[in-house]
Design a protein that fits this description.
Shape: globular
Strand content: 5-15%
Strand order of the largest sheet: 1-5-6
Number of helices: 23
Order of helices and strands: HEHEEEHHHEEHHHHHHHHHHHHHHHHHH
Number of strands: 6
Largest sheet: 3 strands, mixed
Radius of gyration: 23 Å
Helix content: 55-70%
Length: about 450
């Protein structure tokens, strides 16, 4: 974090930065991560909503969460959330294949197939990484969605926790087929994806182990594929063409995800400079930026924006490249426009607020505070926004609210002792019974309860 104008605020901001870095450093290195990105979350939401409604669930209460794991897997872990690994997105060829997986997992949710109890005790922590580039600050925690993955734990625990029996798998297959049909979505993608997994297993002579990923928790057999094919072929939606707009969006997100996750050399091999498509430019922009080739990264973002000047995600990427290349003042215009065009999407707004702060110009701080307050009001499980908001409060000498922002971060990262201390410190300086004081009290209570539960388990 760059210094602010006075020695007092420099000290406060530095302290907050060190606290955030410490919280991040003690997260388990091997813990799974949730990847957050506005465009990706919007796509997964739009892909899932017809299926969620067909399942008789409320889309406002169901999350589809992207997990940073290269294995081909999808799972449910309590509550109304479907978790999809990044490896599954990479393996899928189109949106319809992923919709088939989502429909199946919704069948597990409506069937109440989640096993509770001992499996959750083996779970580890969860680190949350915004789907931004390596230069961005990351922080831990993401509310109920993160806790679902935390409950499931890493792969070994997940295998035990999600070892559904054949009856449950058949039930989820039937429910998934029903939801696809009711939503008017073809089951071709579901069949194609299962065949792809089966062929991959045959090719490598793969024999699933009890604690393996998708092919063990969701065993793919010839009989199962035959049964599903017969069911889907009878459905009127079987021959329905895929949605070209949805597939175009999926191709973008898939390329974006590869650019973020894979080594730049691999990305440039899959999306060579001769490929001038939108997904290819998207992937290369990430790859070039990871290699600190700013001119090449900006050339790709400029081409993207030229093709669609009002695309908020292209503008977000341009602003991000500029910001992380040490040009925060230049990043403000595209990020402000991206925030407006996206309807103030919290993750984009958080990046905009960061750019305003990074200019080190106090004239921007009031706007940054407003932008970030709006971001956390719409998505309070946004630790990066809380971190940025804390730096603003600290820069203004408002240490009680800076402590409250730290407490919000810490309770999400499961640093309960630190959260309790920060919440107590915040209460000491906040007006009693004010909204912020009550929130600090809630965090203190939540942290204390969590610590007591941990002590009882030990």
């Amino acid at each position: 974090m760059r210094p602010f104008s006075s020695s007092l605020t420099r000290l406060a901001a530095t302290a907050l930065a060190m606290m955030a870095a410490f919280a991040l450093a003690i997260e388990p290195v091997a813990a799974q991560s949730i990847l957050r990105d506005s465009e990706t979350e919007a796509l997964l939401h739009d892909m899932a909503v017809p299926l969620i409604k067909a399942a008789g669930l409320d889309p406002r209460n169901v999350d589809v969460v992207l997990v940073g794991d290269p294995s081909i897997n999808a799972f449910v872990a309590g509550g109304q959330a479907v978790y999809i690994n990044s490896g599954l997105i990479a393996a899928a060829d189109n949106a319809n294949e992923v919709q088939g997986v989502i429909a199946h997992e919704l069948g597990h949710i409506t069937g109440g197939h989640v096993i509770s109890g001992a499996g959750s005790k083996e779970a580890t922590g969860i680190s949350i990484l915004s789907l931004l580039l390596a230069g961005m600050a990351a922080a831990a925690g993401a509310g109920d969605a993160a806790m679902g993955v935390a409950m499931a734990g890493q792969r070994a625990a997940m295998g035990k926790y999600l070892a559904f029996n054949r009856g449950q798998e058949s039930s989820a297959d039937a429910a998934g087929a029903k939801y696809l049909s009711k939503a008017g979505i073809s089951g071709r993608g579901s069949i194609e994806f299962f065949k792809k997994l089966q062929n991959q297993a045959f090719r490598y002579g793969y024999s699933p182990r009890p604690d393996d990923e998708y092919v063990s928790t969701h065993p793919v057999t010839s009989d199962r594929i035959a049964t599903l094919t017969e069911t889907y072929r009878r459905d009127p939606a079987w021959a329905k063409a895929d949605d070209p707009q949805l597939d175009a969006r999926f191709a973008r997100v898939k390329a974006k995800l590869e650019g973020y996750i894979e080594e730049p050399q691999a990305t440039l091999r899959d999306y060579p400079p001769s490929d001038l498509s939108v997904p290819a430019r998207y992937a290369r922009a990430y790859a070039y930026h990871k290699e600190a080739l700013m001119d090449k990264a900006l050339a790709e973002t400029d081409a993207l924006i030229k093709s669609a000047p009002d695309d908020p995600y292209f503008l977000e990427l341009e602003g991000q490249v500029l910001l992380e290349s040490g040009r925060p003042a230049d990043a403000i215009a595209p990020l402000r426009k991206a925030t407006d065009l996206s309807g103030n999407a919290p993750l984009i707004a958080s990046l905009f607020g960061h750019a305003l702060i990074a200019t080190e110009d106090p004239a921007h701080y009031d706007e940054a505070e407003q932008v970030l307050r709006n971001a956390v009001a719409r998505d309070r499980y946004n630790p990066f926004a809380w971190y940025q908001l804390g730096t603003i409060y600290a820069s203004k000498g408002d240490m009680p609210r800076a402590r409250l922002a730290s407490a919000e971060q810490q309770v999400m990262s499961r640093q309960y002792m630190e959260a309790m201390r920060s919440a107590k410190a915040a209460q000491a300086g906040l007006p009693e019974n004010s909204a912020d004081w009550l929130r600090a009290q809630d965090i203190e209570f939540e942290a204390r309860q969590a610590l007591e539960r941990m002590q009882r388990r030990n």
